[in-house]
């Protein structure tokens, strides 16, 4: 009985300190779980992690990881930047100068990629990416220690982005120029273009009957109408 009275007294004290505590409705457990999940997703999207009540710690992204993400999303609108497939891995090694054609070749890059990735996966994570770079670093810089070699390779990649190739320029060819020069067309093809090289449209494809009354090829067509409709100037009185 004494314990029960103590509990009642404690409840009265808490109610006195927090008078609105009893008026707040209790929320279902499912809604509370949804709130925690939404907070976690929002913190991940903002690049923050919950380090305590009312505190958020920004996630630092290194220059190496930033380059990894840039190459991971290159050419793929659905990519998340968390994993890198073989094609972009080869492009990264080529664009950043890891492949030199001597100590490191494209074949070496493909072999290392197959070695570090999971057996059933087609991509590598950032951790596997660093392991692959370590393999290439020891092969590229044999005279240096493992850590020094990795540091040198990391420097080649940090801050880099995919190189976008320029648009291929059309090569002027005399054969193509002859085929596209309308001034050199003959026969029915010549009738489809005017003197400026612009197409006549339907008039160049269909024979339109001339109902003007003039002989075809007459150069002074329309001159008679101009004389007839010319206004007469009145003589001064």
Automatic annotation (TrEMBL):
SUPFAM superfamilies listed in its UniProt record: EF-hand
InterPro entries given in the database record: EF-hand-dom_pair, TPP/p25
Principal location: cytoplasm
Disordered: annotated segments: 1-59
Subcellular location: Cytoplasm
Compositional bias segments (type: Basic and acidic residues): 1-12, 28-42
Domain of life: Eukaryota
Keyword set, alphabetical order: Cytoplasm
One term of GO molecular function: tubulin binding
Cytoplasm listed as a keyword: yes
GO cellular component: cytoplasm; microtubule
Signal peptide annotation: none
Any single GO BP term: positive regulation of protein polymerization
Record family assignment: Belongs to the TPPP family.
The protein's name in its UniProt record: Tubulin polymerization promoting protein
Species in which this protein is naturally found: Seriola lalandi dorsalis
